[in-house]
Amino acid sequence: MKSKVFDISITGKYFALELPVAIIKPFIDRKLKRVKVVARFNEKEIIFHAAFQKRNNNYYMLFGKRYQRELGVLKNDIFQLQFFKDNSKYGVVMPEELEAVLQSDFDANKIFESFTAGKKRSVIYAILSYKTSQTRIDKSLLLCENLKRGLHKNTELLKSF
After folding, report:
1. May I ask the CATH architecture of the domain 6-85?
2. pTM for this one?
3. Distance (Å) of CA 81 to CA 8, 57, 157
4. Which one of 38, 69, 75, 116 has the largest count of C-beta atoms within 10 Å of its C-beta?
5. What are the structural domain ranges in the chain?
């Protein structure tokens, strides 16, 4: 399932894009709130995962500074978006390092899989925020140890004790 390619621009002071209802209606009708997004501007393309948010009968999607920098868009630039059904397990791309560490640690994996979908995504995003593969491995190992210690608060999961 995919949407048409459509033009959009950043108009407000926040990082939310107001989405045309006609474009996202097929997703909303199927109760698909999370999507894979392809954004294009001046020969550049980025792919990421996002969620539709409803406020005051309008639908929005967050499009933060990171994505704006990657794509090279500024306020009022017109760029293209296209939505696809999100077929990923977690609603975000799982980093290889975290996946490998979780696969090697049955107990930590079981705890991780018991989390809500949103909590799993927040842990995955936290690991993804580290730039080097080695740091992602180290933080994934630390995460597993902290999970087995009974730590479940996001602020504690990636800290050394």
Report:
1. Beta Barrel (2.40)
2. 0.76
3. 7, 21, 34
4. 38
5. 6-85, 96-157
